[in-house]
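Risk mitigation, structural track. In case the binding assays with zinc ion fail to produce interpretable data, a predicted complex structure has been prepared as a fallback.
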Amino acid sequence: MTGPIPDSLISRLLAAERITIFTGAGVSAESGVPTFRGNEGLWKKFKPEELANLTAFMKNPDLVWEWYQARRTIIGSVQPNAGHRALAEMEGLFPACALITQNVDNLHRRAGSRNIFELHGNIERNYCLTCGTRYTGPELPQTGTVPRCSRAGCNGLIRPDVVWFGEMLPEDEWEGAVRASASADVFLSIGTSGAVYPAASLPLMAKQQGAWLVEINPEPTPLTPSADLFLQGLSGEILPAIVRTLNERRDQ
Ligand code: BV8
Ligand code: ZN
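Fallback model:
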């Protein structure tokens, strides 16, 4: 979609008090970060459940650690794209604007977004499985094997601070995301296949509580039939067009 942004969206955004944005791996695709379920996807060799879970980590910590190191290398070598930057700008265009992300790549924060709920953690953070000591990526040895905790007498395995399958989402993040979904005038679901729960339940929860539901994705998803507006296209093109149109209308 490269056409103009429908007025049905612009007029609702201009009238909105509270907007909530929900993103998945698709918003980082144009930065060069592989999505999970696309054909170039991260999961092409393994299924998500095979790697992103505690059992897999305990069984083969080096393999799982290496997979995260490989992802960190990709993420460290890319920049936020125009879609991330447009979302950061949107934060200042509304009385209340919350960003809920399933992504662990920290690109929203690097683009300037601040009011972020990270449902699935953040790959830049790590912690010791035994004592909970927190570590950031750069301070850990790049040895190719899983690092061990340096706290005296601990030596525990260090894991990425991301939510694995079968693990609970961080309570504060989840609570905040539910509140932001329940109170949204407009809810935008962007770049997510809606495959992973409970995150995938948020768009419908927002709609049931009265939000006008917009989906931005190059492909239809299971959510599309429930969306009030489906903008088919790339988030890196559509989001800057939304911000441009909003600013033009505001300046009139
Ligand atoms: C929990 C962090 C409960 C790790 C991730 C059966 C039915 C229902 C649920 C379950 C079930 N069996 C198990 C479950 C629960 C499970 C689940 O949902 N499984 C799924 C696979 C069925 N969920 C969990 O385990 C969650 N925890 O439920 O705990 C509990 C209760 C009590 C006690 C204990 C526990 C935890 C889930 C968190 C998993 N962690 N990530 C890591 O990243 O390594 S999930 C992972 O998938 C990422 O976070 C990712 O964001 C997320 C979702 O994927 P998407 O973001 O949507 O990405 P995807 O590739 O799928 O899609 C990309 C989209 O972008 C596509 O639509 C594409 O068209 C689009 N796109 C592409 N290019 C662009 C674009 N869009 C816009 N612009 C573009 N340029
Ligand atoms: Zn420790």
